[in-house]
Design goal:
Pathway: Carbohydrate metabolism; tricarboxylic acid cycle; isocitrate from oxaloacetate: step 2/2. Catalyzes the isomerization of citrate to isocitrate via cis-aconitate. One of its GO terms (biological process) is tricarboxylic acid cycle. Its cofactor is [4Fe-4S] cluster. This protein has about 775 residues and is an alpha/beta fold. The protein folds into 3 domains: about 70-350, 2-Layer Sandwich (Aconitase, domain 3); about 355-515, Aconitase, domain 3; about 585-785, Aconitase, domain 4 (Alpha-Beta Barrel), CATH 3.20.19. About 30% of the residues lie in helices and about 20% in strands. It contains 25 helices and 34 strands. It has a 7-stranded mixed β-barrel with strand order 24-29-30-31-34-33-32. A 6-stranded mixed beta sheet has the order 8-7-4-5-6-23, sandwiched between helices. The chain is globular and about 75 Å long. The relative contact order is 0.11.
Length: about 775
């Protein structure tokens, strides 16, 4: 870029920042006009520069090798290759060794990740890393009281996370700071970033042009240890947006539509890349919403190209210097090449996009708002809405809150409030403080809302719900991202619908699913009909963001003297013992612990909610293993037959009996097994309780990797109908394991009584992953290499 162009760009950015917002009062000490050679990745890591120069050099190297136009996803991903000069690059085939820029962990998954890091024997993390306390705060009364209660209940865990972060050089965000993905967007995400995070909704950072990918804790340990991170080279699905977002339609409707098109597994093994003129009508935080919920279609991650909405957000959050630096690399790194090829292309005209409400029980079952009432009656969904909930990591931006407040004010002006309990979750302390200053919380209170803590809360099942009994059929509407059975309140009879926060607000005023705010009238306090006005709200606060309370703890320069202690009698934390190495023998006559019927998410394998308190104690949390999965033998949950005693029992109890009697077992499942959360506990628990293999029709990406990392054989039926050949009483043998090789199927023998049947099982293990299996886990293998 020429000096003249740079000068023009800098002047345009200054004008854009001045026009967009008043910057944060605690803005960085590096200004837009600074000539400093170093622009830091974040204000919390002033000595860690943006890597654009190095990334640009790597992209040049890859382009010279491939000699073809690159998608944006490819530019960001390949610019982080450990060895750009000789890495095999084939979309959908090769395994890439990558160097992520940073690691982020939320408190529920960080416990196990840090316990694994401690056992590695390393003294400090090798890349910038952070821990965020957002998952352990249960919604009961209101934000202030719930936060105080959580700090008391979880003191042992918070102290462990804080001291471990200080000792090993991680930044620590205290309880009350906000949801991990909102904190990342506000402080750490930048265009061209490659970040891994131990939460499935890490892709939220794609709203700022970064490749942010959800992983299990063992992957995080690899990167924090300074090792390359391995990822199967993703395919790229393009989504071309035309037209403009307007009226009741919001950014959330874009991803709800994409979920409708691709389904919960249609994005597996692919990055979703948004482009086209319609992008410019979506705010930066709206783009983050779209990327966040890409996790629900199985996508590796999602992202948008650098655009002026991102620049405005960077300026508003005190990062104008990053905006300036990123703009220099816009064409080279941060936009797709002309004529680049996508593996699949979806086209959406935003002018024609109708607001959607998706559910229940799956996030890909879409109902246009004009059809929601009709479809609900036809399917027997409870028409009365019991609770409306807005916020979560998906929809808790200043813009989201402002648009909902405009609807609430409209209702209040007609003498109406929410007809049902209405819960609001601010995404961060910065959002809470800003909407409080700007009078939004006061409006929500008048509307009848309860403002919850800056945390995940009901979105992940941290909700002490009292208004319905377990098993009572009911409907809730949320602006969350996930609505699997029992996800929010542990009630399998709750019909949860996900939609935009604006639509949740409107439906909560009506109290019914058969209300369409685009066409239907409400009755005001005097019985007169009126229609709600289309929502409006500022994209960014005109007065600038209020940072609120300081909730960040930086690590000391030298953490070697910090003590980290785990009480051997603790019920919350447990030092990990290494898993046993493979003994070199075939697995003969394995018992089937459970044959799972239907959808089996990581919530089914390792439930959240009240079980979150045991995330740092492998043995205790293993008492929830498979308790939500449906047993194909009897269509019941948590009731299987112990093949050793012929008695029925809970799945964890039977597994413990097998382990005590040295009975090795397998679990069998169907399609997209392990979809949903990134929680590696869904892999650790089967390994801990004696499992050796999981055999299914197909896997979700993160869970398949997590199983491999913990030394389990993740296998798929070469012929999916072979699932029907396995019975609860079957004996399974996995043969010729000593000859296991990439791309070579595993021979499997199924014995049913006196008869036997041989089938083929496929796998995606590469050479290094086979070494994980032989060593007993990826962590064991890492220790072998270090020695």
């Amino acid at each position: 870029m020429s000096k003249r162009m740079l000068a023009r760009t800098a002047e345009r950015l200054r004008k854009l920042c001045r026009r967009a917002v008043k910057p944060l009062t605690n803005q960085w000490n590096v200004s837009m006009s600074s000539k400093s050679a170093i622009v830091a990745m974040s204000k919390f890591e002033p000595d860690t520069p943006l890597p654009y120069k190095l990334l640009s050099e790597r992209v040049d190297c890859v382009i010279n090798r491939l000699k073809r136009p690159l998608t944006l996803s490819e530019k960001v991903l390949y610019s982080h290759l450990d060895s750009a000069g000789d890495q095999d690059i084939k979309r959908g085939e090769s395994y890439l060794l990558l160097r992520p820029d940073r690691v982020a962990m939320q408190d529920a998954t960080a416990q196990m990740a840090l316990l694994q890091f401690i056992s590695s024997g390393l003294s400090k993390v090798a890349v910038p890393s952070t821990v965020h306390c957002d998952h352990l705060i249960e919604a009961q009364v209101c934000g202030e009281q719930d936060l105080k209660r959580a700090k008391d209940l979880n003191k042992e865990v918070y102290d462990f996370l804080a001291s471990t972060s200080a000792k090993y050089g991680l930044g620590f965000w205290k309880p009350g700071s906000g949801i991990i993905h909102q904190i990342i967007l506000e402080n750490y995400a930048f265009p061209g970033l490659l970040m891994i995070g131990t939460d499935s909704h890490t892709p939220n950072g794609g709203g700022l042009g970064g490749l942010c990918i959800g992983v299990g804790g063992a992957d995080a340990v690899d990167v924090m240890a300074g090792m390359p991170w391995e990822l199967k080279c993703p395919n790229v699905i393009g989504v071309e947006l035309t037209g403009k977002i307007n009226g009741w339609t919001s950014a959330k409707d874009v991803i709800l539509k994409v979920a409708d098109i691709l389904t919960v597994k249609g994005g597996t093994g692919a990055i979703i890349e948004y482009h086209g003129p319609g992008v410019d009508s979506i705010s930066c935080t709206g783009q983050a919403t779209i990327c966040n919920m890409g996790a629900e279609i199985g996508a590796t991650t999602s992202l948008f190209p650098l655009n002026e909405r991102m620049i405005a957000y960077l300026c508003a959050t005190g990062r104008g210097n990053i905006a300036e630096e990123a703009t220099k690399y816009k064409e080279k790194l941060l936009t797709p090449d002309k004529d680049c090829k996508y593996d699949k292309l979806i086209k959406i005209n935003l002018d024609e996009l109708e607001p959607l409400v998706n559910g229940p029980y799956t996030p890909d079952l879409a109902h246009p708002i004009s059809k929601l009432g009709e479809n609900s009656k036809k399917n027997g969904y409870p028409m009365e809405i019991k609770v409306g909930l807005i916020g979560s990591c998906t929809n808790s931006s200043y813009e989201d809150m402002g648009r909902c407040v405009s609807i609430a004010k409209d209702a209040l002006s007609h003498g109406l409030t929410s007809k049902v309990p209405f819960n609001v979750t601010p995404g961060s302390e910065q959002i809470r403080a800003t909407i409080d200053r700007d009078g939004m919380i006061e409006t929500f209170n008048k509307f009848g809302a309860t403002v919850l803590a800056n945390a995940c809360g009901p979105c992940i099942g941290q909700w002490d719900r009292k208004d319905v009994k377990k098993g009572e059929k009911n409907t809730i509407v949320t602006s969350y991202n996930r609505n699997f059975t029992g996800r929010n309140d542990a009630n399998p009879a709750t019909h949860c619908f996900v939609t935009s926060p604006e639509m949740v607000t409107a439906l909560s005023i009506a109290g019914r699913l058969d209300f369409n705010p685009l066409k239907d009238e409400l009755k005001d306090s005097k019985g007169k009909g009126f229609k709600l006005k289309a929502p409006q709200g500022e994209e960014l606060p005109s007065k600038g963001f209020d940072p609120g309370q300081d909730t960040y703890a930086a690590p000391p320069p030298d953490g070697s003297k910090v003590k980290v202690a785990v009480d051997p009698k603790s019920k919350r934390l447990q030092i990990l013992e290494p898993f046993a190495k493979w003994d070199g023998k075939d697995y003969i006559d394995l018992t089937v612990l459970i044959k799972v019927k239907g959808k089996c998410t990581t919530d089914h394998i390792s439930a959240a909610g009240p079980w979150l308190k045991y995330r740092g104690h492998l043995d205790n949390i293993s008492n929830n293993m498979f308790i939500g999965a449906v047993n194909a033998e009897n269509n019941e949950m948590n009731k299987i037959k112990n093949q050793r005693t012929n008695e029925f029992g809970g799945v964890p109890d039977v597994a413990r009996d097998y382990k005590a009697n040295k009975v090795k077992w397998v679990a069998v499942g169907e399609d997209n097994y392990g979809e949903g959360s990134s929680r590696e506990h869904a892999a650790l628990e089967p390994r801990h309780l004696g499992g050796v293999a999981i055999i299914v029709k197909s896997f979700a990406r993160i869970h398949e990797t997590n199983l491999k990392k913990q030394g389990l054989l993740a296998l798929t039926f070469a012929n999916p109908s072979d699932y029907d050949k396995i019975q609860p009483t079957s004996k399974i043998s996995l043969l010729n394991l000593k000859d296991m090789a990439p791309g070579k199927p595993i021979e499997c023998e199924i014995k049913n009584g006196g008869s036997g049947d041989k089938i083929q099982l496929n796998h995606t293990f590469n050479a290094e992953q086979i070494e994980w299996f032989k060593a007993g886990s990826a962590l064991n293998r890492m220790k072998e290499k270090m020695k």
